[in-house]
Every structure is written in structure tokens, then in C-alpha cells.
């Protein structure tokens, strides 16, 4: 009996978008219009690369960025949920699949001492250059037409499950917890014994509802959450069964 918990990060574990939160470091806490309007759909990572260059050009250093990022609030109930998972690690493998970056996620999890809860984090690789600028790269290349150029979460999940099977690990159930449009692709990969947990009022919930209305519902069960307490209640039932 082992369960795999797959978490998105922005608006799921934390109650904000880490990439837009970093703008608090910018002069006057905003970006110039030209930079803000330079985003092209599906090319978010490249856009963030330009944001990091702008911050670096304005003398924003690593320690200031770190201080700002560690003030992001966790989603309601999430601190208790991650504590509960940490206490029951023999039952739960736990991964993050996120369009944020390694530096931001690492800072936030370590500051709250939650890095041990997660077995692996799959996100865009980031690092500080010798000049002190934060740089970010695409997580991988893929051929999925539904997903942003830098990350197909279904591909990540499938490769992780294959690797675990090679190690002799299979899961009774996969629980996928997310909120965004890019969480739909991995949710559509889930089987009937698995469960998708979309955040109430966010894009993923709306997209799953739309599929049901179009009579092509997802195969897995769906349980909507508003607070991470809802997720914890479900996991408690799961381990009682």
C-alpha cells in the first residue's frame, strides 16, 4: 500500500505565483510596460529570463530575492497537510511538478523546513550566474501540443512512474493536486483508481467540468478542494481503508 501524491506548486502549495511575486523586488515593485508586454503564450520561461535580467541590471541581489520569496504565504491548511504527509512518509511518496524554478521552490521549502516531505521536485532549472544574475532554463523538450514549450507534466509523471516501476515501486493510487491549465494534461493520463484534486474556482476545475459537459470526462475520480484541510481529510480516509 503506497500512494503517490503529485503537487503543483504555484497557487497550490503556495497561495501565489512565485514568478509574479518576485516583481516585488523590482524598482517601484513593477516591470516596465515593454518587458511586461513581451510575454508570448507558451514561452513563459523565456519571459522570466528577461525579468531576471532586468532585476540583475537594477542591482537586485540573491539575498534580497530570497528574502522576498520566503514571505510568500502557503495556501490555507497547507502547512498542516505537509506536516501530516511528513509524519506518514512510509505511506506516501510525494513529488512536485511545477512551472516555477528550482531556486524559488528550494528557498521556500527549506525556509519552512518542508524539503524533506518531497522525494523529488521537477521544475525549470535555475541558478545564479557569476555576475549574480538568476538564469532559468526550460525543464525539457517534448512533443505535446497541449502543453507549454518548456514542460509537459504528463511526460514528467509518466517517466517518474516508469522509473519507480524499474525500482519495484508501484502505487495503489495516484493523487494529483493542482490548479492550473497545465495540470489538465497529466490529469487526463490518470486511471480510474486515481484521483484528481483541482482547486475550487481555478482553471483546472473549470477545464475538468468542461470535459464532463462535452461528454468526454476524465477517467479518474475528481474531488475539488478549497483548503488543504480538504485534501488532508481525504488522505486520512485513504490510509484508514
From TrEMBL:
Molecular function in Gene Ontology: metal ion binding; phosphatase activity
Binding site for Mg(2+): 8, 10, 179
KW Hydrolase (keyword) present: yes
Keywords: Hydrolase, Magnesium, Metal-binding
Domain of life according to the entry: Eukaryota
Cofactor(s) the protein needs: Mg(2+)
Residues that, per the record, bind substrate: 19, 99
SUPFAM superfamilies, alphabetized: HAD-like (SSF56784)
InterPro entries referenced in this protein's UniProt entry, alphabetically: HAD-like_sf, HAD_hydro_PyrdxlP_Pase-like, HAD_sf, Pase_PHOSPHO-typ
Active site positions, chain numbering: 8 (nucleophile), 10 (proton donor)
Similarity comment: family membership: Belongs to the HAD-like hydrolase superfamily. PHOSPHO family.
UniProt-recorded name of the protein: PHOP2 phosphatase
Annotated organism of origin: Eurystomus gularis
Lineage: Eukaryota, Metazoa, Chordata, Craniata, Vertebrata
The encoding gene: Phospho2
Amino acid at each position: 500500500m503506497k500512494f503517490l501524491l503529485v503537487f503543483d506548486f504555484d497557487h497550490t502549495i503556495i497561495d501565489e505565483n512565485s514568478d509574479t511575486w518576485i516583481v516585488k523586488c523590482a524598482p517601484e515593485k513593477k516591470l516596465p510596460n515593454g518587458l511586461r508586454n513581451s510575454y508570448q503564450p507558451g514561452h513563459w520561461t523565456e519571459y522570466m529570463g528577461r525579468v531576471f535580467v532586468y532585476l540583475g541590471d537594477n542591482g537586485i541581489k540573491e539575498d534580497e530575492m530570497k528574502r522576498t520569496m520566503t514571505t510568500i504565504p502557503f495556501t490555507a491548511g497547507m502547512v498542516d497537510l505537509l506536516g501530516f504527509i511528513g509524519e506518514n512518509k512510509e505511506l506516501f511518496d510525494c513529488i512536485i511538478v511545477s512551472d516555477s524554478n528550482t531556486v524559488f521552490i528550494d528557498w521556500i521549502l527549506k525556509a519552512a523546513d518542508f524539503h524533506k516531505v518531497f522525494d523529488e521536485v521537477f521544475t525549470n532549472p535555475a541558478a545564479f550566474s557569476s555576475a549574480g544574475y538568476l538564469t532559468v532554463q526550460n525543464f525539457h523538450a517534448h512533443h505535446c501540443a497541449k502543453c507549454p514549450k518548456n514542460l509537459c507534466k504528463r511526460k514528467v509523471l509518466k517517466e517518474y512512474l516508469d522509473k519507480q516501476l524499474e525500482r519495484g515501486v508501484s502505487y495503489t493510487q495516484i493523487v494529483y493536486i493542482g490548479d492550473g491549465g497545465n495540470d489538465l494534461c497529466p490529469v487526463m493520463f490518470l486511471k480510474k483508481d486515481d484521483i484528481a484534486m483541482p482547486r475550487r474556482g481555478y482553471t483546472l476545475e473549470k477545464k475538468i467540468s468542461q470535459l464532463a459537459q462535452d461528454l468526454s470526462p476524465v477517467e479518474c475520480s475528481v474531488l475539488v478542494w478549497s483548503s488543504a484541510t480538504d485534501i488532508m481529510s481525504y488522505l486520512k480516509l485513504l490510509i484508514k481503508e
